[in-house]
Design goal:
Layout lengths: L13 H10 L1 E5 L2 E7 L8 E7 L7 H22 L7 E7 L7 H21 L1
Parallel strand pairs: 3-4
Antiparallel strand pairs: 1-2, 2-4
């Protein structure tokens, strides 16, 4: 698995996003929350991911965009070690629910914990 985050890996379909929030399950590792749903995609992708930051806590777009860049980078770096044996396609949305601006090390450690919790939930079901 490559350490990339291409256009085909991004969750952009309104239909999938609506279904994700309506029927999806979630795990949290504060200040991150992962909403996931087992689904099917038209292309041969095992997972698509979106990131989101609340406008309520971060009024300025520059702050929201920086946090989203950090989240995408942490996801890109660690997806290979956690999703190498995933067999069913999933849609993911990673939400930043904290009120303080993070740094990359915090986002990376919380992203790892989030992926571990996701793996435990998938293994339990």
């Amino acid at each position: 698995m490559k350490f990339t985050f291409n256009k085909k890996d991004k969750l952009k379909s309104k239909k999938h996003i609506d279904a994700l929030f309506a029927q999806g399950k979630s795990v949290s590792a504060f200040p991150l929350r992962l909403v996931y749903l087992s689904t099917t995609f038209d292309d041969d992708v095992l997972f698509k991911t979106g990131v989101s930051v609340s406008k309520k806590h971060f009024k300025l777009a520059i702050d929201r965009n920086r946090i989203k860049r950090l989240m995408r980078e942490a996801f890109r770096l660690h997806k290979a070690e956690y999703f190498h044996n995933i067999s069913t396609p999933h849609a993911f949305m990673i939400l930043y629910i904290g009120a303080e601006e993070p740094n990359l090390t915090l986002v990376e450690t919380k992203m790892k914990r989030l992926f571990e919790k996701f793996e435990n939930n998938i293994a339990a079901h």
